[in-house]
Backbone:
């Protein structure tokens, strides 16, 4: 074979081998751009009470160790975090504090991923239920179901009447601002244990009969969040199974949620650092990230 022909054959072979290796390893001409990620939501998203605190907006009590930051660290995403403690669904389209823009202002047509936890502050559901049941529990010495006896279905009625339509409207506002984004709505991890036999009156002063009552209110809220997510094309991240056994009555190192009393956070009944990490990990698993 002439030398020139031999050289041509070798060059072609090398090129083919290189192209094959390139395709087998999934190589691309340019590195893929990081996800354009926007985090919205309330204190469960903000990680309020978890140190260190984000100094850029102290009003929102946002942690730099919240689940959006954990997701970002593990995926290399480009994060814009506008989560804010005490946020309600209305604060997606209205200013929550002077100088704090509506949360959906952070979204754009370039947004790839949105995560959020929202709804617990609408109607004061969490704070009102916990305050009412805690007070009733102390006054009853932890006996009976004084909170359920007094309030009945009032909390769940408000969720159905007010929170659910507000959730749908908030998620529709997200979709309008970020039409191409994948939207993940995280449910709330369990606060109370599965039964009264697992309760902890010294840390969570709820009467034995009201432990499951409070849990039922939370389950009802999560169900409303799930329905609103499905109605608007968002992905619901369910914590009902994975957070079982990690409620506020469990010991430190096991619990994801801090108790009302004798906990390790300045903001009780909120996720601790472990809880925020686990929320991030489960969301990533559901979304297939990382």
Residues:
């Amino acid at each position: 074979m002439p030398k020139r022909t031999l050289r041509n054959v070798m060059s072609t072979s090398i090129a083919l081998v290189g192209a094959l290796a390139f395709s087998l390893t999934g190589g691309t001409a340019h590195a893929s751009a990081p996800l354009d990620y926007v985090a919205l939501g309330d204190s469960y998203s903000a990680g309020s009470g978890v140190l260190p605190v984000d100094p850029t907006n102290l009003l929102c009590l946002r942690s730099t160790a919240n689940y959006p930051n954990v997701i970002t660290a593990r995926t290399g995403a480009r994060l814009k975090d506008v989560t804010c403690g005490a946020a309600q669904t209305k604060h997606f389209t209205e200013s929550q504090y002077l100088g704090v823009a509506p949360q959906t202002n952070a979204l754009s047509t370039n947004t790839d991923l949105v995560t959020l936890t929202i709804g617990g502050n609408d109607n004061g559901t969490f704070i009102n239920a916990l305050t009412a049941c805690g007070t009733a529990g102390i006054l009853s010495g932890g006996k009976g179901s004084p909170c359920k006896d007094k309030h009945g279905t009032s909390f769940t009625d408000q969720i159905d009447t007010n929170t659910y339509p507000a959730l749908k409207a908030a998620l529709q506002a997200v979709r309008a601002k970020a039409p191409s984004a994948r939207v993940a709505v995280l449910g709330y991890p369990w606060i109370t244990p599965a039964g009264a036999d697992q309760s902890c009156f010294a840390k969570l002063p709820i009467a034995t009969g009201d432990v499951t009552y409070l849990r039922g209110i939370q389950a009802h809220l999560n169900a409303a969040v799930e329905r609103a997510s499905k109605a608007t094309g968002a992905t619901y991240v369910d914590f009902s199974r994975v957070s079982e056994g990690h409620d506020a009555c469990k010991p430190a190192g096991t619990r994801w949620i801090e108790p009302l009393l004798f906990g390790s956070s300045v903001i009780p009944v909120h996720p601790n650092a472990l809880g925020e990490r686990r929320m991030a990990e489960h969301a990533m698993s559901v979304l297939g990230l990382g």
About this structure: The mean pLDDT is 91. Residues 164 and 227 are 8 Å apart (CA to CA).
